[in-house]
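To whoever is on call:

I kicked off a structure prediction for a single chain this morning and the downstream step that reads the tokens threw a length-mismatch warning. I double-checked the sequence; it's 227 residues and nothing unusual in it as far as I can see. Pasting both halves so you can look.
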Amino acid sequence: MTVRDAATTALLRNGADSGLEVLLLRRHASHVFGANAYVFPGGALDAEDGEADLRMRCHGGVELIEEAVGDNGFALAMAAIRECFEEAGLLVACTAQAEITSARRDALRLALNTQKASWAAIVREMDLRFNLDDLAFFAHWTTPAGPPKRYSTRFFAAAAPPGEARCDGLETTHVWWAPPAQAVAAHDRGEIELMTPTRATLESLAGYADADTALGALMDASTVRVP
């Protein structure tokens, strides 16, 4: 069975009353892999994620990401950023230089999700500039052998950007800014589904009081990574 490269991002913020929160999205019930599970925004690597034009739009962090991640490091970081836009509607580790209305931005997201526009074309229209220094690579998980699919997934973390996270209704059906310990407890009670890497990450994040502390620890190269 082919093992596909993939990337996912734990987006962190401080809740109004609950301290550290992480963005979880519930996968659509129709998914063959991880149906109804709460996950971080993420997905498989696309061929265009490593395009030279995207690399030229980066103004920091490329070398460090490639050193930390290894093979396809830049492309996997770009996949993580793309998937945040596809699945949550958030632009992570980048800024838009072009003035785009919210309606046009929503239309571009829909076009990307329905494969009517490429990520590279959307990047050009919004004139995005990337800063990979804003991404922390902290883990690498590979799906065990067996059906239905296998992924070799790199886990990144980033501070949540301004804006509202919204599910796309196609791949994701619910948004939850979850205090990590609460999400783990809900899984223990059988109220939600969590895949093993997601739960392990949440258990690790539960030890931090706020987003800055958690992200700082994950940015630290000496931080012990989950298997």
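Update from on-call: the warning came from a stale cache, not from the record. Cleared it. Sanity check on the structure: The chain is about 35% helix and 25% strand.
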